[in-house]
From TrEMBL:
One Pfam family, short name: DDAH_eukar
Gene3D superfamilies: L-arginine/glycine Amidinotransferase, Chain A
Family matches, as SUPFAM superfamilies: Pentein (SSF55909)
Record-linked PANTHER family: DIMETHYLARGININASE, DIMETHYLARGININE DIMETHYLAMINOHYDROLASE
Active site annotation, chain numbering: H161, C248
Entry keywords, A to Z: Hydrolase
UniProt family annotation: Belongs to the DDAH family.
Repressor recorded as keyword: no
InterPro entries: DDAH-like (IPR033199)
Superkingdom of origin organism: Bacteria
Binding site for substrate: L18, D60, E65, D66, R85, R131, L242
GO-annotated biological processes: arginine metabolic process; citrulline metabolic process; positive regulation of nitric oxide biosynthetic process
Official protein name in the record: N(G),N(G)-dimethylarginine dimethylaminohydrolase
Length: 253
């Protein structure tokens, strides 16, 4: 069960954020409304939410998940693969010092964005992507093992981040789409298949027995509801325009 979450308000500079989505520029005012609803959804799930001020210097900084991995034993500050995001880590480390005695830091030439890391109990699957390389993954695994946890790597071919196409919903249930449906390492899970035309909904998050789901994906909702979950939909259309999803917008711990 999670107790807390850290989020950061989007800044006006978000219109200059990284994207491959080709969905147009985000509407900043609408993004603020959507972000506020996202925060409300986390609170409805029982979380104490720390909302950080917008950081206009970093257009993508609302996607706080990428700059840190929070575990039960330690926090790991990443080294984002996107050079424009590396300056975000210093501020996050200062924030996390209030919550963690053990903080580690990934060093160059290693790169890691925590959107590539999926927690399943005490094990962490790490996607090798354009943003996360082998050196970065090896450092994360070494840190995890230092604290009695474990990690393994997963190769990606089609998506930006591992959690673009995967979400662990606890109870051995794994939301998956695309290339992840047939990967050997995930066959031990009960796979909840998301249709390709609703692949964005694969980036859902489990928060204390409620699944937060992007708004507007009825087939995905049906699949997850039939697995026995309560669902809270959140409209994140403006963040989708920046390749961001529900998991990207918070650090939950």
């Amino acid at each position: 069960m999670f107790k807390r979450a850290i989020v950061r308000k989007p800044g006006k500079s978000m219109i200059d954020g990284l994207t491959t989505a080709e969905l147009g520029l985000p509407d900043y005012e609408l993004a603020l409304v959507q972000h506020a609803d996202y925060v409300n959804a986390l609170k409805e799930c029982g979380l104490d939410v720390l909302e950080l001020d917008a950081d206009e210097e970093y257009p993508d900084s609302t996607f706080v998940e990428d700059v840190a991995l929070l575990t039960s034993k330690c926090a790991i500050i990443t080294n984002p693969g996107a050079p424009s995001r590396r300056g975000e880590t210093a501020a996050m480390k200062k924030v996390l010092q209030d919550y963690y005695a053990n903080i580690e830091k990934v060093q160059a030439p290693g790169t890691v964005e925590a959107g590539d890391i999926m927690m399943v109990g005490s094990h962490f699957y790490i996607g090798l992507s354009e943003r996360t390389n082998q050196s970065g993954a090896d450092q994360v695994i070494a840190f995890l093992e230092k604290y009695g946890l474990s990690g393994s790597v997963v190769t990606l071919k089609e998506v930006l981040h591992l959690k673009t196409g995967l979400a662990y919903l606890e109870n051995n249930n794994l939301v998956a789409c695309g290339e992840f449906l047939t990967k050997e390492e995930f066959q031990k899970f009960n796979i909840l298949e998301i249709a390709e035309d609703e692949s964005y909904a694969a980036n859902s998050i489990w928060v204390n027995d409620t699944v937060l789901l992007p708004k507007g994906f009825p087939k995905a909702r049906k699949v997850i509801e039939e697995a026995g979950y309560s669902i809270r939909e959140v409209d994140v259309s403006e963040f989708q325009k920046l390749d961001g999803g529900l998991s990207c917008l918070s650090l939950r711990f």
